[in-house]
Amino acid sequence: MKSRILQDEQKKIPKLICFDLDGTLYQDKVIYKNIITHFFQDTPYYEWIEPIQEKMDNILEGTETLKCGQFLPKKQAEFPEKIEDLFAVSGTAALLLESPEKWLDRKKYSYISDGWTLAMYLARRIGWEGERFWERFQKARAELVGETFGPEPDDELRDLLLKLREKGIYLVLCSNAKKSGGEALLKHLHLSECFDEVVFDADKPHSMRTRMEEWGIDPAEMLFIGDQGYFDLYAGKLAGARTMLVSPYYIEDQGLWDIRKNTLEELKEFLGKM
After folding, report:
1. Which residue segments constitute the domains of the chain, with CATH numbers given?
2. 93 Cβ contact partners less than 8 Å away, ≥ 6 residues apart
3. Bridge partners, residue 223, by sequence
4. Predicted structure pTM score
5. Largest CA-CA distance found in the chain, in angstroms, rounded
6. How far apart are the C-alpha atoms of 241 and 232, rounded to whole Å?
7. Among candidates 269, 19, 3, which has minimal Cα distance to 160?
8. CB 200 within 8 A of CB 179
9. Which SUPFAM superfamilies match (predicted)?
10. What is the Cα–Cα distance from 11 to 258, expressed in whole angstroms?
11. Which 8-state DSSP code applies to residue 230?
12. What tens digit of pLDDT does each residue of 92-147 get?
């Protein structure tokens, strides 16, 4: 049955593939925990760092009430006295609802889809916000291009992407990461020359309808690949494009997307079959 499904997937060769970067073209097992360290280490909550990291692992595995694929209210915890106070919020898998519009207001809700978004949410729960938040976050992000914590380049992935371009498939990299950090990471991964178009500061998913119109390709002939359903795939799905979720985590809305891959190796196998 598995081989039959794979064959069916490969029959639909897209004219355009829109890739996400972070968590998709590499999979992070380290930095999301370091984000917690950077935000909590010099606060009254520094002793919570390791227990929070363990709790995060449980959430990513799907064994807690809070799960990836949920929208959580943007609300600072009021005088948290124990770790559980940071997690005392109610999540909603809004994309599974018939009318999710209420939860798509980014001023009121955060979409939790991986270790990064969960860590950033918890940082805001203890009061980090504004420029102070982004300055501290960039310290963790800079570790992606370092030798200690950063992902290693994958030459097999690079070769696959270049071969897809040779076949005439238009490859787009579309990331919400800031341009400076995103370009440095792309260079670190040896993927700078693999795409026909590279977009940073993309404001996904809100910008995607306009971008899809500019590409001038029938959405049915596009494939969106990413690790975050709402940010990377939702706009494509609404427009009629195919979608592929690539994530090792339990994600409550994972059934919405056309194809599910758990690892980078599975993604490479899929791309290779094209």
Report:
1. 16-27+153-272 (3.40.50.1000), 30-143 (no CATH)
2. 67, 69, 70, 71, 252, 253
3. 17, 242
4. 0.93
5. 58
6. 12
7. 269
8. yes
9. HAD-like
10. 14
11. I
12. 999 999 999 999 999 999 999 999 999 999 999 999 999 999 999 999 999 999 88
